[in-house]
Amino acid sequence: MTDAKVGQEGTARNRIAGGVNPWLDWTSRVAIVIVYGGSALIGAASIHRLPLGSVDNLLMIAASIANVLFLGLVALTTITRLVPTMKSKGVEMRVSALLGAFPTVALAFLPKAELGPIWSALSTTLILVGISLSIVVLRWLGKSFSILPEARRLVTEGPYRVVRHPLYLCEGIALVGVTLQVLSPLAVLIAIVVAMIQCRRMINEERILRLVFPEYDVYAAATPFLIPAGLIPARLGRRAHQAGPELSTKAIDPHA
């Protein structure tokens, strides 16, 4: 490796990543626990008010229970997670992470669309499946979980053998379900904005992981970015697969 190459990587590292402040780390943990833990308690307290009497209502109750479990697991995982070895630095990375974590809540306050029984059941099923799979992924991610782009421990097993960002994929499934329930131009616009922000979050997270874990390039070369390999045409998959490392390299190289 040449001195110029080392210098470029060092500049990129200083530009997008910084050290760990224990006080800020624990402050962020407390904030996440309050927000997600409080939301879980509020959700649990309101489940008994949900009506019974139809398949869609039962699906909604199941989805609400899954959401409470997911929120509670986020709070619990945040308490027990590892101290990061490297944190993101810069306003854009932090703003993207925060914007991606909360705008979906805005969809819950929009008026429900008048859907037929089939579409209503489909939307609720998507929410239930997305949240339930998110719980499974979060269990595999475990102590490496974070909202901001941070490096703790590289997870490549379980759902992370299928795609590099399974949690975002599962949340995307739930997002489609929520959008269908409040189907309107505003809801679609919010969903598109959320999807764009989530894509940015995934890129930012990979920038940090590539800096900390040299083996990440090998993992990325063998694992699809977001969509499982069998669900996209082979030719398109190869193109996306080849473009992924180039995109990430450009992202960390200030001279690219």
TrEMBL record:
* Predominant location: membrane
**Transmembrane domains' residue ranges:** 30-47, 59-83, 95-111, 118-141, 173-197
Q: Which GO terms describe its molecular function?
A: transferase activity
Give the InterPro entries listed for this entry.
Phopholipid_MeTrfase
- Entry GO CC: endomembrane system
Q: How is the protein disposed in the membrane? A: Multi-pass membrane protein
Q: Where in the cell is it found?
A: Endomembrane system
Which keywords appear in this protein's UniProt record, sorted alphabetically? Membrane, Transmembrane, Transmembrane helix
Does this entry carry the keyword Lipid metabolism?
Answer: no
Specify the protein name: Isoprenylcysteine carboxylmethyltransferase family protein
